[in-house]
Specification:
2 copies of one chain form a homodimer. Chain A has helices at 9-16, 20-27, 35-48, 54-61, 77-92, 106-118, 134-142, 166-179, 195-210, 227-238, 252-264, 298-314; strands spanning 66-71, 96-101, 124-126, 147-150, 160-164, 185-188, 220-221, 246-249, 274-276, 293-295, 322-325, 328-330. By secondary structure, chain A is of the alpha/beta class. The first copy, chain A, folds into 3 domains: 9-52, Orthogonal Bundle (434 Repressor (Amino-terminal Domain)); 66-164 and 298-325, Response regulator (Rossmann fold, 3-Layer(aba) Sandwich); 166-295, Response regulator (Rossmann fold, 3-Layer(aba) Sandwich). In chain A, the strands form 3 sheets. Chain A has a 6-stranded parallel β-sheet, sandwiched between helices. In chain A, strands 7-6-8-9 form a 4-stranded parallel β-sheet, sandwiched between helices. In chain A, strands 10-12 form a two-stranded antiparallel ribbon. Chains A and B meet through helix 4, helix 5, strand 2, helix 6 and helix 11 of A and helix 4, helix 5, strand 2, helix 6 and helix 11 of B. Chain A binds a DNA duplex through helix 2 and helix 4. Chains A, B: Keywords: DNA-binding, Repressor, Transcription, Transcription regulation. Chains A, B: This is LacI family transcriptional regulator.
Chain lengths: 335, 335
Amino acid sequence: MNQKKRVTLLDVAKHAGVSRATASLIVRGSTNIAEKTRKKVLESMQELGYVYDRVAANMRSQNTSTVGLIITDIGNPFFSELLRGVHNSLEEAGYTVFLGTTFDSDSKQEQLLSRMLEHRVGGLILCPVSDSSHETIERIKKLDVPLILAVREIEDIELDYVGIDYVAGSHMAVNHLIQKGHRRIAFLGGSSGSSAWQKRKQGYCNALVHAGIEVDESLIISSTVTREGGVNAIQKALHLPNSPTAVFCFNDLVAHGVMLGLDDARKKPGKDIAVVGFDNVPEASLYNPPLTTVSSFARQIGSEAASLLHQRIIDRDRELQRIIIQPELVVRSSS
Amino acid sequence: MNQKKRVTLLDVAKHAGVSRATASLIVRGSTNIAEKTRKKVLESMQELGYVYDRVAANMRSQNTSTVGLIITDIGNPFFSELLRGVHNSLEEAGYTVFLGTTFDSDSKQEQLLSRMLEHRVGGLILCPVSDSSHETIERIKKLDVPLILAVREIEDIELDYVGIDYVAGSHMAVNHLIQKGHRRIAFLGGSSGSSAWQKRKQGYCNALVHAGIEVDESLIISSTVTREGGVNAIQKALHLPNSPTAVFCFNDLVAHGVMLGLDDARKKPGKDIAVVGFDNVPEASLYNPPLTTVSSFARQIGSEAASLLHQRIIDRDRELQRIIIQPELVVRSSS
DNA sequence: CTGAAAGCGCTTACAG
DNA sequence: CTGAAAGCGCTTACAG
């Protein structure tokens, strides 16, 4: 181990011939210091290779300059867009961010929450897993750290929340398919435990019922929220005795998988079967064919969540905020 | 502020009727403790809502359980794949990870490096920006924190590195276009400062020269590494007096932009003009048309980087490692 | 197992 | 500006 000993503020102070208190003031950017002294100290820091120990400082002053962000899966472009939105605002505001991914596993979520709390994060943005356990929920309730929920809500928990109106979005999507003359419309993919799924299902059912079409439960096939999930779901759908002429997918990632599956089955999306997604990820316009989808403004959700967190950290007692973004249908040639 | 006072280990110890030392041992999972005592202490923790302060513990024991990961842009699926690779291994190993994105800005990179060091990270994985300033380079050299370079190298710096053989990859891609009968092949996108760009250019030139085709500098058009960059680059290329019949793109993201630009110009990729990308992001197979590209195994780069970092943290004096992954050409219908 | 003490690298508060 | 002291929440080392 060729570890050099860490240079401390006291080392710097001695080297510059000032007191530790003065050095501390300078490192924190105080203005009431003679320019000459400040310069001398800054030079000593340079020379000694001093690195400010923010961890020690935060501990002493009971501050924190980190926040945690827990998402489901970075492989889903929806979350990478959300991450961009969050990250920009948060880094701007001077936070250093811990990132964790749950892959929709409750135990992973537990573990990440624990770790981040043990690291004394100043706040958390959580995109909860589909089936948060009772323990997790109880725990979150007791948390005295600012926490913002994004994308999915958790029942019985009153927290700041940013999401979109899934019911309205799904309604739009399915209604669009109905307008195009479809009657047998499948709802594919997504894990049935999540609020995001349930709301989409609700929008799906609403649209059907509204058009006088009976809901056929066999056309509702859940899956993991991955491309693979989409492939599996469409395969099941195609093997149905009375297979659908159109599919509404849980999200674009699943839609991507559905298209891959259709490809395998030698069916052309948009011709043999209509496909609609959800999210409008940046890639959707370049899918083959370009995907009709519902825009869920992931980046905006991210930046709203960041700003909610920031405000909640500043003022713990402010009123609870619920921000629901309105989705938009984007029609392309897959439907 | 409705902040409860933090419960400390001493509070727990008192509550359980043991000494602080004992409580400390238990919280760290020591085995030489009577089962009865351990149980009592764990119950007290539960009851009081104790949260282990890993920050204080790390400070005292001069440990660290965090690592930093600095990438260019999460919007690029290449990096989200890489992130997945890194993240899995690192979280597995018990680290909590700080994420930073530079958007290829040197000052952002500086800032992120500073912040992470101030947070006492135990190690760093850095995907350096295209033009790291001299200061940054000097600084990195002096760092006594384990640091792994990924994706791009920095001249004059001897560090563990994981990347792929860009020269070979580009050579494959361009050679493929030559085999298809193309003579006027453009190289579009990417920032000319980066080693990744220069190596791709080298592979591009090698392939041309090898086939007896003269390199036409006007066909080499750099850009930002974004979809927008790709759109701009193809527009410039199409306005050339003698426009290309095929384009080799810096990466799939740029290729995506190029295809969007071709769309605007009413040209069909794969028919009117051949397009080849680089990276083989998961979406590439679903582009319209499916994109011929060179696979750069982003996820593998990520997991290799994580494992290098882990090993470097364990043994500072081990030999430098350079891992160069061999790319593979994936032919689809865009060429 | 206990108990008392010292220390990680800072900030805070205060008398001068 | 200085100097000395106390403290953030832990771990470490040691005598008992």
